[in-house]
């Protein structure tokens, strides 16, 4: 991967840091079924583009004798990693750009990259997104805004875009209808209050972040996990995009939630958080053409064994294999 700096023509005075790989021309290029495919990695809020590097290294090793896409790109969004802050953010509030602004910027970035490095119009390419956490709803919003452009999405433990991570997960002890006697065994009212406080502080959409990504309208933009479905590839007569949904390992996720900075006991995660996340992931499998049933616990959702929320960090080899499998499928399936 080669590190680059690029300035969007639509936002002067600020730069984005990107890392790219473009395979050298070969005699077999015309016979490459992935010659129109651009592989794009979308970060969550926490981990920057550099955390994809090991997965991409293993991907290129896996595909040393297989077809490669026309290009691979990772990038840090404005205000994230090595990129500059978004010059359009207002100076007098901790809230800045929202998801719709991000996908507009992403489209401009991909337009410039395809022209500068591939000498092609972006519209001549099919996009495959590899996304973690909030990158997954960004992929969905991009596909809806630019219909026909997305051929596949690998969702690595998607953020629950329609959740406020407080009332949507936990009962409210201060609600008149709350009944402490109906709490799961081993869970107290104090446990519920603590979990609500911690999740509100870490994950509520109103919580600000260094990126100044305003998440307060996410639930309005994507109120359902299972819809709207992704538009067909290349137009109304094309096939549905391939959607591969990967969830975290419930045991490892609960352990990391308890032992990390969140410090929420495993019993809380197991009783309230994981069931909601599992149901959300099942909804995501309905967005496009889904993978075959792979596990009894997840149905069409694959489970990344031994991985918490940041699957690309915990098991980059697993991520590389999933990308390679997705590319193999797309190479066999005409649009």
Q: If helices are DSSP runs of H or I spanning 4 or more residues, what is the number of helices? A: 9
Task: Work out the oligomeric state of the chains in this entry.
Answer: single chain
Gross geometry: globular
* Overall strand count: 9
The first-to-last residue Cα distance is: 28 Å
Q: What count of structural domains?
A: 1
Return residue spans where pLDDT drops below 50 for at least 5 consecutive residues. Answer: 293-298
- Beta-strand content estimate: 15-25%
Organism: Rhypophila decipiens
Domain AB hydrolase-1: 39-321
Keywords: Hydrolase
Protein name: Alpha/Beta hydrolase protein
Descriptive terms for the model:
9-stranded mixed beta sheet; about 35% helix; Rossmann fold; globular; alpha/beta
Question: Can you walk me through this structure?
Answer:
It comes from Rhypophila decipiens. Keywords: Hydrolase. It holds the Pfam family Abhydrolase_6. One of its GO terms (molecular function) is hydrolase activity. InterPro entries: AB_hydrolase_1, AB_hydrolase_fold. The protein is α/β, with parallel strands linked by helices. The protein has a single domain, classed as Alpha/Beta hydrolase fold, catalytic domain (Rossmann fold), CATH 3.40.50.1820. It is 33% helix and 15% strand. It contains 9 helices and 9 strands. Strands 1, 2, 3, 4, 5, 6, 7, 8 and 9 form a 9-stranded mixed β-sheet that branches. Helix 1 packs across helix 9 and helix 6 crosses helix 7. 41% of the residues are buried. About 2% of the residues have low confidence.
